[in-house]
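Title: [Solved] ABC transporter permease 3D structure

Original question kept below for reference.
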Amino acid sequence: MTLQSEVEVTARPRGSVISYAARIFVRIGVLPILVVIALITFSLMSDNFLTVDNIHSALRQNSYIIIATLGQFVVLLAGGFDLSIGAITALVSVSTAMAMSSQTGSPLSAVVIGIVVGVLVGMACGLLNGLGVASLNINPFIMTLATASVFSGLALMLTSGVPVSGLPMEFSDWLGYGSVFGIGISIWLALLAAVVLWVLLTLTRPGRHIYSVGSSPRAARLSGVNEFRTLILAYVTAGALAAVGAVLLTARLETGEANIGASLPLQTIAAAVIGGVSLRGGAGRVLDAVLGAVFIGIVANGMNLAQINSYYQMIVTGVVLALAVVADRLRTRLASAVYAGKV
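Solution (posted by the thread starter after getting help):
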């Protein structure tokens, strides 16, 4: 056997291992790796981390983040961003609480009216974002950054920075801490939101148009897709989902707060990107966004159990987001190489 043949024999297994690893990474993304690392790390730091009660508590506490991430996911899918999702949460929280506290009828009617008002406010905020992006052709980053300031200002103006109290106890008992079959109602609502969004994006023509517009707006227009209506649908859906999350958060807090949601834009974008949703639009699944949000919740819960300062949690979230973006770019390049037969 010549020296060249020996090199080829030894290089072939190594190359096949690298190729196999690259294909696995393209298929599953970075999230499973991060989840395994988080589970091992936090289970070693706290004996209570992997208990059923703690997992249920973490899911209940982060259900509003899961739902808000689904809203961010829709906008990312359409090729945009929504930096106003935290401000929408604050404005919806205040609007819901004010609508409930002003009612003199039965608690049930007060809760229903408050929720309807909150969802309508969220949809109106989403509509404003959509009109700015689709009609005025304003960059989504600039548009939602501007409306975030507007929505936050409105929430503070309505409350003068004071929490809105006087909500029916039934509101918190039902949506904040209620359970069905031993599972929190907020978890069921997050699951329902994910299923409904999956149906919209997978089984309906408007949902498929969101993928088309996010992937290539020009090609979508040439195919007869109404880009204006598709973008409006994406942003209104995001506003509605942010509103549902805000209602759940308000139920847990038992007050309407104008100062909540500041970290939601970073958390939701990080969750979606970590889950494998492309920042360039047109690529991603509902399950990806949900699992990404669950991962963010796992990290926060694990750090709380380990008694790590909340400021460090913000640092970790930022670092994980940066790593996820790098992994997303690497995954895209590897996918092109794999499909071209180079890896």
